[in-house]
Each structure stands twice: as C-alpha cells, then as structure tokens.
Amino acid sequence: MKLNHKEITNLGELKKAGYKTKKIKDELRANLIDKIKSDEITFPGVWGYENSVVPELERAILSRHNINLLGLRGQAKTRLARLMVNLLDEYIPIVAGSEINDDPLSPISRFAIETIKEHGDLTPIAWLHRSDRFYEKLATPDVTVADLIGDVDPIKAANLKLSYADDRVIHFGMIPRANRCIFVINELPDLQARIQVSLFNILQEGDIQIRGFKLRLPLDLQFVFTANPEDYTNRGSIVTPLKDRIGSQILTHYPEDIETARKITEQESKLDKRQTEVIYVPDLAKDLLEQISREARESEYVDAKSGISARMSITSFENLMSTAERRLLKNGQETTMIRLSDFMGVIPSIIGKIELVYEGEQEGSGSVAEILIEDAVKSLFLNYFPKIDKLERKDAEGPYDELISWFFDGEGFDLLDDATDEEYKEKLDSIIPLQQLVTKHQPNINKEDTYFLKELLLWGLVAHKKLSKQRYTVGYQIKDVYGSFIRGL
Known about the structure:
43% of the residues lie in helices and 12% in strands. It has 489 residues and is an alpha/beta fold. The strands form 5 sheets. A 5-stranded parallel β-sheet has the order 4-7-8-1-9, covered by helices on one side. A 3-stranded antiparallel β-sheet has the order 12-14-13. Strands 2-3 form a two-stranded antiparallel ribbon. α12 crosses α15, α14 (283-298) packs across α18 and α18 packs across α22 (450-463).
C-alpha cells in the first residue's frame, strides 16, 4: 500500500490510512517480486552477472536470507549491496525522534513506547526515505562491540541523573540505529573473532545484549556481508557459527568476456568531457586494455589469489586518455587519437593493482607491467593477422617476410612519445609492407583505426621475436633482430 507521506503526520492518521507493519525482508521480497513480474532490471549498472550472481541474489532475497557476497577485490560486491536499496519502499513511517527508527505500530525502544503511551494517536510521525536506510561499516581490527551494538554512556547518566541500572543510559551502536535498514559489513574476515561472536544473537534471534542489561530489542535488519576468499590472506576468517547463521553465500566473479569488461570500464571511468570530445579511442585499444587485466589474472608473475580488480582497467583507461591529452596539449593540437605507444602511460596504474609472487618480485613491477602489455598484444594479434609458428621450415615463405626484410635493410623505426599526429602517421605510412599487410588481412578496418592496427602488427612481431623493440626515455625504436649486428661485422 502506497501512503501519502506528506499528509500523514501522526499515529492516528497512519492507522486510518490502513498502514500495516512490514518486516524489511518481506518488504524487499515484495518489491523484488513486482520488479520480476514487470521484467525490470533489478540491479542496473552491474554487467556480467545477469545469469550468475543476480539470479542467486534474487533467490536469497526471495528466501529472506542474510547474505554474504564472497569474491576477489573489484567484483562489485559493495555495489550490489548498495543497489538493494532500490528494492525498499520509497518511504516508511517512524516514531518522530526515535534513535532506532521505531515502527509506530510496533515500537521496541523505551522512548517510542513511552511516547506512544503518553500521546496516543497524536504521536508525531516522521518519514524515512529509502536512501537513508543504508548503513555500511568497514570491518577493521579496531572495531569494538560498543561501535556495533552499543554501550553504557556515563555522560548521559550524569546529565539525566540516572542510575547505571536504568536502560536509558544506553548509547546505541550502529546496528540498533540501522533498525529497519540494510546493514553492510565489508571485509567481514577482518573483524576480530570476538566481535563476530557478538553478531550471533542479532542474526539468529534478532535481539541484542548490552552490558548485561535484560534488554530485548527484536531488531529488524537485512544484513549483507562482503568478504574475500578466506585463503586470500592471513588476516582472519569468518568464524564457523557466524557462517552457519548467514542464509546465502554468493560467489562473485570477474567479467567472462572483453565486451562485458569494456562496458564496466567505460561506465566507471571518470573522464573529463573534453577528453572524450577531442581524443579518438579505437575499439582495438579498448580491447587491448581489457586484455591486459585478463593476462594479469593468468600471469605466472602475479598472485592469482589476490585477484586483479576491475579498478585496474578503469584507472588504466583514465591514464591512457590522459597520456594522449598531455601530448595533445604539448603539441597545441585540437584533436588526437590513442596510439599503442600511449600504453606506456598506463604502467603506473598496473603496478599499483597487482601483487607479485617471488618470480614477479625478481623481475620488478615495472617489467611485469610491460610483459603484461606485450602478452595482451600477442593474444589480440591472432585475431587480426596470420599465426606465427614457433618452428618454421627452413626457406619457407612467411606472410611477414617482406616486412621483416624492410627492417633488415633499413635502420629501423623510431617514434617519439610526443610526436604530432602528422609525424606519427607519416612514420607508419613510410613502411610500405605494413600497409600492404593491413590491407590484405583487414580490408574492412575503420580508416581511423588503421594506424593503431599498424602499431599492433609491429608490436605483435616483437612479441613473437621477429623484430626487436627498445624503449628510450622519450620514445621507442623497432628494428630487425639480427640485421644491425650483421651489418656491423
């Protein structure tokens, strides 16, 4: 039943309007049923979970379960929890002045009970919007029972001249104050075991105990916990009795394909409007960016248990755009395009998002980042150009012979990071066999994407050891692997 919250101001009017008490889990369930029936998207803006996580989450809500979202970092666990707010009623009535959002028809605090006893149907009613019904707490080692549940407040006792035996001296913690709300505890394993124990009664019986008071508050909450897999670190774990009290544990995951990952990156990237207007980004560049994260998740140098957050692709895309923008500003140009060489600018975004195993530490984070970019180029290369066999028959002709010969006979190819677009295009156009290969194998490529594809071809040959690439402070050089050595003899 939808009530006019602007017209109902007291308990009598609320009763007259036919309001009935509804538990938060029933509220979520009822609104979810309506959305499913009307074929609405229940968790908008979350991509890649349509056939996996979202159905499980919907089943958990329909079952009125408290929920634990278990997954590696950067898998939208907190976002899912926050989106549950959209399944709440737009407004709910509370006893005005209540610290714990008392239901006017089912009060549980001493304040609300005495207020209704004193004022009856004239008890003032306030309305709580669903946006104010979300509480979130990051589990850290310094969290106490008093923070979550509450404690005796000596200052309140002194000001009101009350005995410590009077329950009015209690200062409620975050959980009682989140009564009739969604309460999220992030990184649950970080919560000390003794603090986790304090949640047992709340989850099972719905009540709390504070400093030995015989106080039973049948709280009404929807709990959502988030956690990394327990074997991720040695920080702690979820104690078994607490896990037993959580109705549904839902496993999250990373995007299963590049298209989904691109949607997430483009949605979450914080770009200046001017950047998107003056910088052209080839689709291939976006694919390459996402492929770097996929390579990192499979890399022998990176700790797979730590996960590769979606934030790596997001911040890398922001850095990629800023690399092109900086060049544009230095050259005084109006527009520019993303180049493959611009990917050197995303290395700072990569090295801060990966945890290395011993072999990776030996290589160094910067070198591992470059290896990941090279591996991504190598993976995408096969989508556009013929495969390069590791073992080739002697004197056998290959599709890249003419291009490799161009480098063998010449001095190589140099490109400065801050070269203008005209210089950049002129350099690539000077390699005739390069254009011939692109025309032959990708005749329908978008003209604006041609130059990025040319660079991909060169970098792909480097990744397959057909050419060599050397990085300088202000640019890079590609040349034949053996030509310069032979000419020097």
